[in-house]
Amino acid sequence: MPTLRRFVLLTLLPGLLSSPAGWASDLFLDSDEPLPAVLTATRLKQSPAAVPGSVTVLDRALIEASGARDIPELMRLVPGMMVGYSGYAKGNLATVNYHGSRATEARRLQVLVDGRSVYRPGLATVDWGDIPLAIEDIERIEVFRGPNTVSYGANALMGVISITSRRPVDSQGSRLKYTRGERGVDDWYASEGFRAGSGDFRLSLSGQEDNGFHHTDWGEKYRDSRRSTRMQLSASHSLADNQALDWQLAAKEGSNQRNYDFEDEPMVENIVEPGDTDKDVTARDFAGSLRWNVDLDPSHSVQLQIYAQRWERRQSWRTCDVALAFDPDVARLFAMNPEYVEDVADYINIGEELDFRVPSPPPGSAEEEVLGFAIMNKFYDDPTTRTAVCGDVNQDIDETRYDLELQDTLSLTDNLRLLSGIGYRHDRSDSQTYFNGRVSNDIGRLFGHLEWYLTEHVVLQGGVMYESDKLSGETLTPRVALNYLITPRHGLRFVYSEAIRSPDMQENNVDWRYRLSNVTGLAGRDSAYAFAYATGPGDLDQEIMRSREIGYNGHFDFGLSIDIKVFNDEIHRMISEPLDVKEFVPSNKHWMWFRGAETEIDWQLGLRDRLRLTYAYVDFDASHKSDRRLTARYSGSGGWMHDWGRGWSSGLFYYGADLLNERRFERLDLRLAKRFSLGRTDLELAGVLQQRLDDEALTWRENLYDDRRQVYFSAQVAF
């Protein structure tokens, strides 16, 4: 990435040349400046130098300066994070993955919003555009870059993204914001913060809309617009001097368009016409959470958290196929060999094009050839097998999660802290299409983390998570770390950890069948099943990851923060096959390893300037081709934020990644803003320009825009 290297050199050179002669000798002097604290790594508040791993913090100032409209765009600021997009059927859906593997089906990151997991239990994914949280309400995002099953359980295999919303006490008053721009951008936000009794409250309403990609590589208009409306009510109550109660209610409603054809559908033909809304996904999300914190004494605290979530997805359309597709012999042949069914269909299609009766079946086993020849003869000899059969099908699914967790933090001595906890989770998925009814899972967990200061410079840490999963069995995952603190602000770390990912319900427990209702064309039948179906193996093992990391974290008294890490990660028993109803063969036979280095530099240059640089080099290999294709070897970002005075400010950011699915990505973003103070009212006007520096499709060849530039503007008023 020569462009990124030039950017790094040009940015660092002025600071290096202007450094005083004695700079190196004073690197590790202590400062009276308060140290920042991170929480995501171990659930304990720790200084960055004492954390057993790498943590990226995206604060409110950085979020605003970036001009990002959604969370995936912010992840480009995290070293080693891959941001991609889905393919033809779902092109406008962003996906996020750390270091790589199959980026379009990111199943190995735990994502939390105020401690609540938004990782869907049934289809095991994160709908980034459907999280019921406005970006304007995000206070900070902590990203733990590495396995963290020890603290957050299965699915935190490669990292944890913890999103913290603004506290109601810090959100008093009213805020209104409107954003409009190219590509159909039409966003709005309104919030009201107030105090009532012993509590502080914030009610936020927001909406987001855009048109997605312009066209496919065939020149067809891309039908992938999205629209959402969100609500969040947050409250914080002070019950006593040592007790606090926080609760939230959140909801989201919206729709995501889908293209007219799905390559993975069992039907040969569909009858969706331009302008129809068939196949569009209607999404509704609901969440509620409650957290109670009690300080029993200065060295002992307890936290109880309860939350419930529900994801509802509705997607239905009317489709057609020839009557032969519903013949029992076709279903029998599909059960023997799905690929042979495709071969038979190809023979029939060739014969139709040439107006010729193919005299023999495709080559296969004796049983396959007999059954395939019988199907071909039915097509030729029985005209009713060629009549059109139409019906309504759907991919509706409801997913529900209930979670209860008790956490205890105890300082045993001045040098020894223990965090321990117990939790229970119930997950449920309801779908006639995916599960032929309902699948549920119960997960119990016990976890602990011990932090022991052997001396003022040496910190030994160990953690363990025990989980009992009804569908996947029992697991025990450890982590051990040694931190050497040169000073409280500068530390070296040596970390070994293991993590697991349980196979999700779709991989292991699916019973995937498309049922047509309101059928026309089949005498005496008002419903029928498509011949293609898939059933989960039911005995998949957990994926297991072993990670080794050596790193350095330092905070200098002239505003410079640096984090560097080198890593060696290995994933075994990996489930890498694409989940396709026509070819459903998940297994634990795959593997992948990552080796490389990452760095993150954040430099506050006085009161007006802030520089931020990230870079990641990832060497890798994998047994499955999709894991190799969807991993970038070089990636990084660079940012410069400046306060020009008189209310003017700007943010200039560069993002780059090489060969993500064989496609380079480079973009330059500029945000320019002006604040006006009108008595007790503040007004901010801002514009964002995003300029692509490459000429590539995004992740997949069909994800194309008409031009490489996007502009949008916003106006925000607070009073």
Automatic annotation (TrEMBL):
<dbReference type="GO" id="GO:0009279">
    <property type="term" value="C:cell outer membrane"/>
</dbReference>
<keyword id="KW-0798">TonB box</keyword>
<keyword id="KW-0998">Cell outer membrane</keyword>
<comment type="similarity">
    <text>Belongs to the TonB-dependent receptor family.</text>
</comment>
<dbReference type="GO" id="GO:0044718">
    <property type="term" value="P:siderophore transmembrane transport"/>
</dbReference>
<feature type="domain" description="TonB-dependent receptor plug">
    <location>
        <begin position="50"/>
        <end position="160"/>
    </location>
</feature>
<dbReference type="InterPro" id="IPR037066">
    <property type="entry name" value="Plug_dom_sf"/>
</dbReference>
<keyword id="KW-0813">Transport</keyword>
<protein>
    <submittedName>
        <fullName>Iron complex outermembrane recepter protein</fullName>
    </submittedName>
</protein>
<feature type="domain" description="TonB-dependent receptor-like beta-barrel">
    <location>
        <begin position="434"/>
        <end position="677"/>
    </location>
</feature>
<keyword id="KW-0732">Signal</keyword>
<keyword id="KW-0472">Membrane</keyword>
<dbReference type="GO" id="GO:0015344">
    <property type="term" value="F:siderophore uptake transmembrane transporter activity"/>
</dbReference>
<keyword id="KW-1134">Transmembrane beta strand</keyword>
<dbReference type="Pfam" id="PF07715">
    <property type="entry name" value="Plug"/>
</dbReference>
<dbReference type="InterPro" id="IPR012910">
    <property type="entry name" value="Plug_dom"/>
</dbReference>
<keyword id="KW-0812">Transmembrane</keyword>
<dbReference type="InterPro" id="IPR000531">
    <property type="entry name" value="Beta-barrel_TonB"/>
</dbReference>
<dbReference type="InterPro" id="IPR036942">
    <property type="entry name" value="Beta-barrel_TonB_sf"/>
</dbReference>
<dbReference type="InterPro" id="IPR039426">
    <property type="entry name" value="TonB-dep_rcpt-like"/>
</dbReference>
<feature type="signal peptide">
    <location>
        <begin position="1"/>
        <end position="24"/>
    </location>
</feature>
<dbReference type="Pfam" id="PF00593">
    <property type="entry name" value="TonB_dep_Rec_b-barrel"/>
</dbReference>
